[in-house]
Amino acid sequence: MFHWLEKHPFFFAVGVFLVIAFAGLVEIVPNFVQASRPVIGTAPYSTLELAGRHVYIKNSCNACHSQLIRPFKSETDRYGHYSLSGEYAYDRPFLWGSKRTGPDLMRVGNYRTTDWHENHMKDPAGVVPGSIMPAYRWMFTNKADIDTAYAEQLTVAKVFSTPYNKPVPMKDGSTVTVKMGSNVAEANAMALAEAKVIAADMKGQDVKDAVAAGKIPEIVALIAYLNSLK
Amino acid sequence: MENRPLEYDYTVTKMFMFMTIVLGIVGMLIGVILAFQLAYPGVNTILGEGLAEYTNFSRLRPLHTDSVAFGFTLSGIFAAWFYIGQRVLKVSMAESKFLMFIGKLMFWLYAVGVVAIVVSLFMGITTSKEYAEFEWPIDIAIVIIWVLFGISIFGLIGIRREKSLYISVWYFIAGFLGVAMLYLFNNMEVPTYFASGGVGSIMHSVSMYSGTNDALVQWWYGHNAVAFVFTVPIVAMIYYFLPKESGQAIYSYKLSLLSFWGLMFVYLWAGGHHLIYSTVPDWVQTMGSIFSVILILPSWGSAINMLLTMKGEWQQVASSPLIKFMVLGSTFYMFSTLEGPIQAIKSVNAIAHFTDWIVGHVHDGTLGWVGFMIMAALYHMAPRVFKRELYSKSLMATQFWIQTLGVVLYFTSMWIAGITQGMMWRAHDEFGNLAYSFIDTVTVLHPYYTIRAVGGLLYLVGFIMFAYNIYKTMSARPVEEYELQNASPMGA
Lengths: 230, 492
Hints:
The complex is a heterodimer of chains A (230) and B (492).
Chain A: H1 2-7, H2 9-28, H3 32-35, H4 47-58, H5 73-79, H6 114-122, H7 124-127, H8 146-159, E1 167-169, E2 175-177, H9 184-200, H10 205-212, H11 218-228
Antiparallel strand pairs in A: 1-2
Helix pairs in contact in A: 4-8, 4-11, 6-11, 9-10, 9-11
Chain B: H1 11-39, H2 52-55, H3 57-89, H4 97-122, H5 136-158, H6 167-186, E1 189-191, H7 192-195, E2 205-207, H8 211-246, H9 253-267, H10 282-294, H11 296-309, H12 315-319, H13 321-344, H14 346-352, H15 356-385, H16 393-426, H17 440-443, H18 446-476
Helix pairs in contact in B: 1-3, 1-4, 1-18, 3-4, 3-5, 3-8, 3-15, 4-5, 5-6, 6-8, 8-13, 8-15, 9-11, 10-13, 11-13, 13-15, 13-16, 15-16, 15-18, 16-18
């Protein structure tokens, strides 16, 4: 059989393809639907949070920080409850990372504040002596891309039925509705309102001035995202 | 006519050899910079505060992995295909104007793709998925390049004189098909600009999969991109170049069969070992773990087949630096394919995952196996492609030892760093509290990060010696009238 295949490239290629495709089908397909279901208490990202998530991705934060807490005592002691599949239901792409040069950030919103992040992103080693994380000062001047975040919200709402403007169940039995603007101007206004709340907790006058003037620096969006990680 | 030996046409091979060397230097240089940034964070602002956005670790990290994987390695694979393909199929590229055009078109599109990738990653335009960072317009370009590669492979096979496909061709076919399947499915994404009716950036897209599914598809891809880029085509290369260079026949056809079909079937299952103790189903994790261990069989099958090909001719290892590269490459392949399965065992993975031990594992495979094999391939091809004897054998031997030392420093320091950090993360004191804060587990790594950076630097120095040696071969040696035969004739 093998000698015959080696003289018939077409059938050889078909054979190889079947052999390599098999494992993917068996491993990925069976749990596909179940794994994409959200757990109760998981809500989609707001426009500003999503813009912050884009800042996180743009700067490859995931190259050094994981967002996956493994079910070990040492990890739950350090980072909080271990991760559940449904908590990631609205994460496109997933940001688990594969290397912890810095600590996990899955629930960083539970134990770090806006103020802490502001200081830390400006000068990591000043806040955590010995830190090897680079400073991200350009985030204080670069402007966040709210339009693209809004475009993503529109896309996921339309293509994947992500529940924007719909009540989402919380753990205590209440519901939360994450609003999405009905046009670009409204989306920007909503993001700015959210940014003002963050900027109020920040010390940097430049950031405060920018937000007051209707512009949102990347750092504000990033902090909104980090604060949402709980 | 029939009695005259075929004149092979190496135009496209030469183009990709050039690309291999350029992108190798770029990718490895960025790697060395990254290594020094981890040891000395001041290097993040090496070009000043104003350019820090473009020189800091996080922006450079994807550039490093992509330029060595899809730049250096893929170019080397393409160069080797356009050399080996003609020879084992007994047909010259010069015989088909169409295939020649496709080959050149592929090269120039590839060159444009490289520029697009470098620019977009510097700008921070990325999907964040490892080894699949490119946004959708570049993905489309990559698919086109890959289709052209497929046409080159199957086109040459279509007009072949030798009816039986040599082992190397099996692996090239598999590499082509595997990457095609994986890349397409992992990069399923919706461009937001079009889906939202023209809002925001045109480059942005959103993954078709979310959360756990996205992770599963990504690591099914990520692990097997390693299979079909870093393993399969490299095995294709050693199956051709080692017998040619040593003048020995492949040790066993049956072992080749077993390891080829075994590798094809088993490799794809092992992706789950990247997700052990994550939120993917337990059975997927266990499957990933078990199949990783089974994977030792076909991997070692190829490597042992190569080492036994040298049976009775071991003196060549001492006398020829080119054989040294290939034999040590096979050995690193065995080493790396044993280390990987060990890390895939659940209890070991609990310590190793997220640490530098994984980084060490990747690098003993890529530096010791992939890098050595590609350089050996170029060293073997250069005299035949340029019809000139190789410039310097002693420079090559020196390079070999410098780079070997570099690899050893790299993986030993990363072993110690990884296991140290893994153990410190989980250490509890007598009251059951965590013994170390996270920063303690970072500062302790400083000496190992420094050693690793030195190891990487040595490898880069060796690579520059390699580039110089090839350059001098092209320019300093007299042209031979006939293509050089058999084992590489080398200058003193």
